[in-house]
Each structure stands twice: as C-alpha cells, then as structure tokens.
Amino acid sequence: MRRRPALPDFLIALLSAVALLCAVPASGMPPAPLPPPPSPQGNPTTPEKAELGKKLFFDRRLSGDGTMNCATCHDPESGYADGLGISLSYPTTKNWRNSPGLINAAYRKTLFWDGRSSSLEEQALFPMMSPFEMNRNLDYVEEVLKTVPEYVEAFRKIFGGEITRQRVAMAIAAFERTVVSRDTPLDRYLRGEKDALTARQRAGYELFAGKAGCAACHGGENLTDERFHNLGVPEDPKAKEDPRVLATARFVGKVSGFPDYRTLAEDPGRFLVTKTPGDWKAFVTPPLREVALTPPYMHNGSLKTLEDVIDFFDRGGGEDPKKSPLLKPLGLSKEEKEALKEFLAGGLSGKVTAFTAPRVP
Amino acid sequence: MRLVVKHSPYRYRDFSLVAAEASLAARDQGKFHEMHVLLLSRSPKLDRESLIACAKELKLDVPRFTKDLDTMAHKKEIDRDLKLAEGLDLYTTPTLFINGIKVTGDRPFESYQEVIDRELKLSGAGGTKK
Known about the structure:
The complex is a heterodimer of chains A (361) and B (130). Helix content of chain A is 35%, strand content 1%. Chain A has 14 helices and 2 strands, in the order ααααααααααβααβαα. The radius of gyration of chain A is 22 Å and the shape is globular. Chain B is mainly α and 130 residues long. The two termini of chain B are 12 Å apart. The chains are: A mainly alpha (361), B mainly alpha (130).
C-alpha cells in the first residue's frame, strides 16, 4: 500500500481553521433583551382576566373525566411543563410529544411543536378537545362552566357577556401572558450590565452566539427564530411498540389530512401542517429562557439533560440524511461544553413571575 | 427505605376498583407485592375470573380471596385512600412522594432512581426523613 505523504503542519492548521469556520452556521438575529409581554388589542391583559384564566387553567372541569387540568401537563413547579419525556395523557391513552414549558409563551408567534396555532387564544382549545389530552367536548364544557355562578358573574364582568369557549380561551391566554421571565443574567448583560454573566457564562454565551452556532436559530428577543427545523432527533423505538402511541400518531395524521395515516409510525412534525416535503420531521425552535427548568428536551423528550443536548448538537445533530444543513459537527472541547452548559443553565435562569395557586370555584 | 402504597382506582375503568380490592385481599394473605406486580403485568385483563386465576397462581387461599373480592371487604380502606388523594388534589396515577418530592406520572425507572439516589445522598449517613 502506498503511504500518503504527510501534510505540513501549517497546512493542517489552515485546513482545521477552515473546517471550524464551516462548522459555524450563518448567524440569525442576535440575542436581545426581552421587552414586556404583549397585550393584544383583541384580548388586552387585565389582572381580573388573568386571575379568571388562572382559575380555568387549574379547573379539572375542563377535562372529560374531571381528572386533568391545564396544569397537569404545565405544572408551575416544573417550569410549566411536566418533566416527562412524553407528556402526561388522558387516562387510557398515550400522548406522543413532550409538554413544552409555558414561560414566555406570550411572545411566541406559533404554538405547539408543529406550530399549528398562531395565538395562545387559538392554542388553548386544542388540548381541551384532544382525545389524548383533556378529552372534553367544547359545547359541553361551556354548559358545565355556566353551572358555576362565580364563573358566570366573572365572565359577565370581564367580557360583558356569557361564557363561550372563545372567552374561556381568551382568559387562559391572558393568564399565560403573565408567566414571564425577562430578568435573566443574559437580559441584564444585554442591557449593559457587564458583570451580570459570570466569566464562564460569558464564555458560554460567546460560544452560543459564535462557534456553537446556537444563535443562528435561538436568536432575537425570545431566543427563537420561530421557524421549523429537522434536527434528526431519533424516534423512540419503544414508542412504536405501544398501540396507544400508534393510535395517537395515526389519529393526528388522520385529522391533519395525511393520506397514509393508517401506517404512520413516526412523527412528521411540521409536515402535517404545511404538507411541504421540506417540513418532514421539522419542529419549532423553542425559546430558551428558563430552559434548565424543563428537562427532558426535544419534541419527544429524548434528550434528558442540557449536557445531552450540547453533545447532540456537537455531533451535528441526528442521523437523518434530510436533517437541516445548518447542522454540522462543532468540535467543542470539554471546557467549551461546560461553559455552554453554564450559560444555558445559569445565564438564562432568572426570576419567573411569582405563582400563587388560585381558588377554583 | 419505606414504601407506602395508597389506592386511587380510576373511576372510569371497569376493573380498577376490583383490582385494588384484589391487591388488599392478597395483602391479608401476605402477598401484596406479588399480586401488585402480577396485576400490572396482566392489565387490562382484570375481570373477576382473571383475578381469581392470579390468586391461584400465587397459591393464596382462593375461597377466602374470592369472598373478599365479592364482598369488597376493603372498600372502606380504598375509599379512605381516594378521599385522601382528592384532598391532596391528586388525580394522576401513579403519583409518588419520594421523601416529600412529588413525582407525577408513569416514568422510566431511571427517573425514580435519580430522585431516590439524590435524596439518599442529601440525607447523608443514617438518612433524614422529610
């Protein structure tokens, strides 16, 4: 066998530098401090409406069998998620996706992992209706809530009319818009407080915005590009063995108009909404403030810790040949990974709106 | 370490309540854990005949077990647990309290192991109950 001639050291160094540059994805919007949450003209947030929404958020009347409320899967003690890989499910059924945390949901342009809702008002009704989440008929829930005098009175005062599903959703959305974290060390750093990040967090932030390429998608005020990417996140092979998961996957495929729903055994993600081939297995970029509160990660909760997430991106994502071209191996050192973890865990953890449990009527 | 099991049979499942009764009838004969494991592995096939078959498999006193099952001998105990769960606003099974830390929902083994190991470490030698 012919031996390959050795490359001169300077050429190796040059090639390594070029490879490193190629690994850094094109930059998106740079991270920016988070402004106060929006209060939409069509549903302005008021303390009374948010309080009503909080009561509804915790009201088990919103589920078919009276055992679940919104907080079952969006528990304030777990970053408004549920700490499970796959979200909790309506009894006897199985969900198929991870419960996303709700902190800073106020700023989202689309909701759900596949972005099928464009407002919190629209989003709030989906889980109520979903057979594998709260499994409640909306006509029925309106009538159930109308039997509660305190609700009747509150809706009359706040909305000037009777209880409707739209107003239920508006109240819940108003509550959700109060769940905010915008005073993280990163926010303070970006507002000019240079010591807000520790030296290690700062090093992590520089990697986040530079070499590691995180900010290409996790940029802007809410640290998300609000776009959908296929990262090649592996499916859980065990999930396919559970007929309840298959039933859920096929049901969602069916109601989304996916022709081959009967054999659907994986999660097509955004494709179910747009039917665009490029969106196959693409999921929305989640915002990152308070990310340390909501393990495990990804749409199917397959990555347990922030370390696992960093390793995943360092490898250049998953194995899917159709994954996003933005993903390339990063070549992060152990120290760099630790700094990035410090930034994600410490630099993005601040003060979440204080929570006090409501008195559900 | 001490494990305390409370019953919260789901009201809309056909055999949930009678299965809770079966586990307590087995407990009275010293085989709660064995029955508990068997019931989980056989679920949802937990009708009366299947439960009696489980009792035979565990070599219990079957006439005594069947009588307990048919008379719902432990209903008061199960109702007491249900009331406790409702009082604590618990509707998801399983819900575990590990040294006071609430862990909700069916999770992988490692998830429980992590909390238990952390609590054992925090409590130090000899352990501290919360």
